[in-house]
């Protein structure tokens, strides 16, 4: 699969960068037994925690993994704030602007991405502080803590409210360090193609359950009551792991095949499938049958397929060749010739081929990087089912 040689960090086949969470490496939601729920005061954190990934702690501190940033893009979390119509309009304007500046970072150097993303997340916090009423701010802080899972006990605000003793702090940090060391080992196992990934997943869930018990055991009864107040009422919507990220509109530059100038705004109300490709890329060509199959399957439904041809080689920069190859491939859907990489960069794309699904409101909802049938993965089935889900919304 083609990917720029300058790419310095990975991107997952997800709901958007690997800054959020990946389909292939995604673990199922944490499940706690009723016995654990009875024993642990952290039930409202752990039992409702989102789909966890086996990641190194350093990655979790990156700005795109900030629970605050993630929850801003989770509709159920936004709904929990009960925004007024005026607030809602302002909220979406602010978030959409941030998204359109955030997405291009996905194919920048790691250093630039970290620096700019950190600035954008800080800006988001500042603007939400102004937009939300005090009660809404408090609730959102509670959602963030619940989203953090076990890590919430080491959060500065929780530590200050519970007033840990020096001994307690040392014990909590030791439990956390031991757990993270085990997580790193599990991640290595996840990357081992010969390893049973489901077994690793179960081991990971057990690891967090054990961590939970140990952490709670350090707290006094008074601190457990205080913790309940800090984290607030359990938020059932944390299981909703579908980020909504504003998709940039198609750039005005570039020629269109099979269509006049298109915009995502005029396609609102339809599910839009966007695939980036280059006609000389064999991995892209192997995806062609599925685009044609989707085109036929959904021809009488509100689905629009759009190809964006972004060249890598000099031969792929010839627009006549792009048109000829599109005709040979039997593409009867719109194709945008993206010679100057305007769209490639606006979308932060980094790999040929890449497929994105845009919902009826113009938000990114799913992303598959690479061949849809790569090494036994069934990305075609996954993306087709997702298209059907978006149609039903």
TrEMBL record:
Residue ranges occupied by any Thioredoxin domain in the UniProt entry: 241-392
Gene3D superfamilies with a match to the protein in the record: Glutaredoxin
Domain of life of the native organism: Bacteria
PROSITE patterns: THIOREDOXIN_2
GO MF assignments: antioxidant activity; oxidoreductase activity
InterPro entries in alphabetical order: AhpC/TSA (IPR000866), Thioredoxin-like_sf (IPR036249), Thioredoxin_domain (IPR013766), Thioredoxin_ResA/DsbE_sf (IPR050553)
PANTHER family registered for this protein in UniProt: PROTEIN DIPZ, THIOL:DISULFIDE INTERCHANGE PROTEIN DSBE
Protein name in UniProt: Thioredoxin domain-containing protein
